[in-house]
């Protein structure tokens, strides 16, 4: 193994690759007792330490990679510690030994729904990188008049303060009166991008929930504030999407199966690729689906 230091640190679960680049610049990483610098490469027999603690350099084909799906409620922030004392998305995640959860992207404090977490910083980095072109799907309720012209503008592209932005697809979800529901898709995750796009057309977003990230749908068993863990087959499919090899975990005994389930808590099967959206709406108070709201089925190209 001869790889960039920040890549090895990210794969070890210390943080994302970008975070590790910053920590190297801050002088918090050493290799064989010497302070590391950005651009250093390391081998499997090098001694790596982060803040004085040893970091195990694991080859990509030896890594035990875990991924969980979290249903974020409104009011939580996507930071590990908040100076204002607000609850964070990390507060309710399962505890780990020797690694930590890394968030795949962010949702703002007033947005709920699907967040992915992984123990592998390299997987997180690839899933977030723009070159991967993974689409995100949101269920959004807007207040105001939305015309066909507005929808065409949003699909063609709108100039925001940080550049051109657009939805790749918009599906009318129905609704009555001044409030209407839509499913929208976009290929990136800029700060408050969904809200800013709708605001550019003179309407306001008053509910926003992410329901899909690439092939991963928010499963019905993941209630608000709860997490479920993806099975190895689904993790493999997710890794294949970003050309990352995945070693399936070999559990040899029934006792190991029992211990692993106790450690990991709730699990979800078939969350990647095979999951089908239910043609229902959401009860925003409880986080569960309700029958009376029945949006149109989205098109296959963007939403299946």
User: CA-to-CA gap between the ends?
Assistant: 38 Å
Strand content: 25-35%
In total, how many beta strands? 20
Mean pLDDT across residues:
81
How would you classify the quaternary structure? single chain
Counted up, domains total 3
Helicity range of the residues? Answer: 10-25%
Query: In CATH, what is the homologous superfamily of the largest domain?
Result: Pseudouridine synthase
Q: Please give the largest β-sheet.
A: 10 strands, mixed
The CATH class of the largest domain turns out to be: Alpha Beta
Radius of gyration: 21 Å
Encode the helix/strand succession as letters: EHHEEEEEEEEHEHEEEEHEEEHHEEEH
Q: Count the helices. How many?
A: 8
Basic shape: elongated
Going by CATH, the architecture of the largest domain would be 2-Layer Sandwich
Q: Which regions are unreliable across 5 or more consecutive residues at pLDDT < 50?
A: 251-259, 263-304
Class of secondary structure makeup: alpha+beta
Brief digest:
It holds the Pfam family PseudoU_synth_2. The protein is of the alpha+beta class.
Structure description:
With 304 residues, the chain is an alpha+beta fold. It folds into 3 domains: 2-58, Roll (Structural Genomics Hypothetical 15.5 Kd Protein In mrcA-pckA Intergenic Region, Chain A), CATH 3.10.290.10; 67-130 and 216-268, 2-Layer Sandwich (Pseudouridine synthase); 135-213 and 275-303, Pseudouridine synthase, CATH 3.30.2350.10. It is 21% helix and 27% strand. The protein has 8 helices and 20 strands. Strands 7, 8, 9, 10, 13, 14, 15, 16, 17 and 18 form a 10-stranded mixed β-sheet that branches.
